[in-house]
Amino acid sequence: MKSYRVIYLDAFTTTPFSGNPCAVLPDARGLTDAQMQEIARETNLPETAFVFPSDKADFAVRYFTPRFELPFAGHPTIATSFMMAQEGMIDLSGTLKTIQLEFKVGVLPVDIEIENGEPVKAIMTQKLPVFGNTCTIAEMAPCFGLAPSDFREDCPIQVVSTGVEFLVVPVKNLSVLEKVKMNRELLGEVTKRLGINAAFMYCLGGFAADADTHERLFDPNGTMEDPYTGSAAGCMGAHIIQYGLKSGPFIKAEQGHFVKRPGEGILEIQGKPNAITSVKLGGAAVKVLDGHVYIND
Fold first, then answer.
1. What is the C-alpha to C-alpha distance for residues 240 and 276, in angstroms, rounded to an integer?
2. Is the dihedral of CA 64, 68, 71, 76 positive or negative?
3. Residues 134-140: contacts with CB within 8 Å, 24+ apart?
4. Least packed by Cβ within 10 Å: which of 3, 20, 141, 234?
């Protein structure tokens, strides 16, 4: 049997057992794709991250859900960056350290803010937004057990990507988010037709007085609701700026309260409608478990 160290961190929070959990293997050399998928299925967390050497960046990272590999994701990037900082894999001198991570979508920077030699925030840069196909309110309402009047009418329901595509669904308020009843079959038909995996529903405002948004992820093929979806938050932030719902550049985004794992991140969207020049998302992470996973040779 061969052992690999695995560290669990909760991302987009500083409080253990909140935010979004992620398992990180800090040295995944020697693992096959099939073994990584098996480990991700075993952890059964939203994502499991695997770290490798890179000849293009400081590190290469690969992210797996229990079902498939993702080309890019938000909360494992925050968790993995914090793990690297906490484990001495990167230099923490000064107040800001920028590392380059190699993803399936390319090399992107992560800024790590440092206080007294400890990481306090990781800020990930996402790809510039691509705005895709739209859906009608009439098509969406039965997918979520909602009335047409629950949806915003001043911006479209639209596929957006800042590295991974999501169907971004704007609704009017928190009470709408609370009463959603996902119809897996109907939503699955829509996501399959659009070639995406999930819908990301959001409203302006949140539980905290200073929250700018609250959001929920709905995956018709998933077994659990994702507590905090960093890659989708970037899509949402771009959607908000594109359609003038807020001026930005900073958006405090909440998620996870409805599954009792509250988290928050700070989006920074530079630019204006039809000219967004930068999408960033910052958040913290906290270590909750440290151990080993065993693989047959």
1. 11
2. negative
3. 134/158, 134/159, 135/167, 135/190, 135/194, 139/190, 140/169, 140/190
4. 3
pLDDT for position 223: 84
Using CA atoms, how far apart are residues 148 and 139, in angstroms rounded to an integer?
9
CB 285 within 8 A of CB 79: yes
d(CA 211, CA 113): 22
> Tokens 């968790």 map to which residue?
79
pLDDT in tens, 128-175: 999 999 999 999 999 999 999 999 999 999 999 999 999 999 999 999
Integer Cα distance of 77 and 120 in angstroms: 14
DSSP states of 173-197 as a string?
Answer: -HHHHHT----HHHHHHHHHHHT-S
- Which residue intervals of the chain are DSSP H helices? 33-43, 75-86, 137-144, 174-178, 184-194, 230-242
pLDDT at 282: 97
Helix pair angle (137-144, 184-194), 10° resolution: 140
What pLDDT shows up at residue 248? 87
Q: Radius of gyration (Cα) for the chain, nearest Å?
A: 19
Helices (H) and strands (E) in the chain, counts: 6, 17
Percentage above 90 pLDDT, the chain: 96
- Quick one: residue 55, left, alpha or beta (phi over 0 = left, psi -120 to 50 = alpha)? alpha
Please state the rounded mean pLDDT for residues 189-198.
97
Distance CA 4, CA 31 (A): 9
pTM for this one?
A: 0.94
